[in-house]
């Protein structure tokens, strides 16, 4: 996949895929909106936006190419009264997805520079020694033992069936388009040494987006107008499951500008409107 950024243009969904529009008011006080933990309260305070900020959420039927389609009726339906579990519910490379790399944090001012620093997809997928497995016990390859922090914007998000929040993060709206996946992971067991930090990141994410009129994202993608500025950090992860030639993650209208199957996964901190 080419890492050359596409020309600047609006990163919005096609109108035919939009099934619902509503407001996101992060500073609003909503019933039942308090974080579930003390760590969540601290994360919410750190993520508090300026009172004047507003976003428009465009809920769509768009999904990742490898996921089942979602009907317009299902995408537009109200969020369930009882939220899905916060625990990680998947098996593919579980050991890597719910652990944090032991490494210093590398800071990038531009997502393009982060993507440029990543090893090639071909090397990781076909000639890596040892071969990267997809089983639950597959830990981090040496190239994944990196922690990064970058200033970027959230353009879209969905919630996967393994309980990860799948964020499509991109460059400034004034820059040529380029996106990358970053995942707020489902949580490891309470006994995990990584649990507290991942829970703080997840609570901070939920406390910001729960103030949308229709709640947190579902299995199809929500787009944000304007995109939400963030400073986001986490461990690098190579999604070998989707590294086939031509395979790209993300919703249909942003997928052409996703040059890599590398991810930040799990997200370990997220600061909104830095």
Structural write-up:
- By secondary structure, this protein is α+β, with helices and mostly antiparallel strands.
- The protein has one domain (15-77, 87-272): OB fold (Dihydrolipoamide Acetyltransferase, E2P).
- The chain contains six helices and eight strands.
- Helix 1 crosses helix 6 (195-209).
- Residues 29-36 and 48-52 have low confidence and may be disordered.
- Which sheet architecture does the biggest sheet show? 5 strands, mixed, barrel
Mean of pLDDT: 88
Radius of gyration: 17 Å
**CA-to-CA gap between the ends?**
31 Å
Q: Pick out the low-confidence regions.
A: 29-36, 48-52
**Helix and strand sequence:** EHEHHEHHEEEHEE
Q: What is the fold-level CATH name, i.e. the topology? A: OB fold (Dihydrolipoamide Acetyltransferase, E2P)
C-alpha geometry: globular
Supply the helix-strand structural class.
Answer: alpha+beta
Total domain count: 1
Number of helices: 6
The oligomeric state of the chains shown is single chain
By DSSP, the count of extended strands is 8
Q: Please report the first level of CATH classification, the CATH class.
A: Mainly Beta
> What portion of the residues fall into strands of 2 or more residues?
25-35%
CATH architecture: Beta Barrel
The CATH superfamily is known as Nucleic acid-binding proteins
Which strand order spans the largest sheet, edge to edge or round the barrel?
4-5-6-8-7
**What is the share of helical residues?**
10-25%
Keyword list:
17% helix; globular; 274 residues; alpha+beta; 6 helices; five-stranded mixed β-barrel
């Amino acid at each position: 996949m080419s890492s050359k950024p596409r020309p600047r243009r609006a990163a919005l969904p096609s109108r035919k895929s939009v099934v619902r529009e509503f407001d996101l008011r992060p500073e609003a006080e909503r019933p039942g909106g308090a974080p579930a933990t003390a760590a969540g309260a601290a994360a919410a305070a750190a993520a508090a936006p300026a009172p004047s900020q507003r976003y428009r959420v465009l809920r769509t039927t768009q999904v990742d190419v490898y996921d089942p389609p979602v009907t317009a009726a299902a995408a537009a339906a109200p969020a369930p009264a009882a939220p899905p579990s916060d625990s990680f519910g998947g098996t593919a490379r579980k050991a890597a997805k719910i652990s944090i790399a032991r490494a210093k944090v590398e800071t990038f001012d531009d997502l393009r520079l982060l993507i440029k620093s990543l090893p090639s997809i071909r090397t990781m997928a076909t000639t890596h020694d040892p071969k990267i497995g997809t089983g639950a016990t597959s830990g981090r390859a040496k190239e994944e033992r990196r922690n990064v922090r970058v200033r970027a914007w959230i353009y879209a998000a969905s919630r996967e069936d393994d309980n990860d929040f799948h964020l499509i993060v991109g460059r400034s709206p004034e820059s040529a388009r380029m996106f990358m996946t970053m995942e707020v992971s489902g949580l490891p067991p309470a006994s995990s040494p990584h649990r507290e930090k991942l829970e703080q990141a997840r609570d901070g994410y939920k406390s910001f987006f729960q103030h949308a009129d229709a709640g947190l994202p579902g299995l199809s993608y929500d787009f944000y107008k304007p995109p939400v500025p963030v400073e986001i950090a986490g461990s690098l992860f190579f999604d070998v499951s989707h590294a086939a030639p031509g395979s790209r993650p993300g919703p249909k209208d942003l997928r052409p500008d996703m040059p890599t199957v590398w991810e930040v996964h799990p997200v370990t901190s997220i600061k909104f409107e830095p």
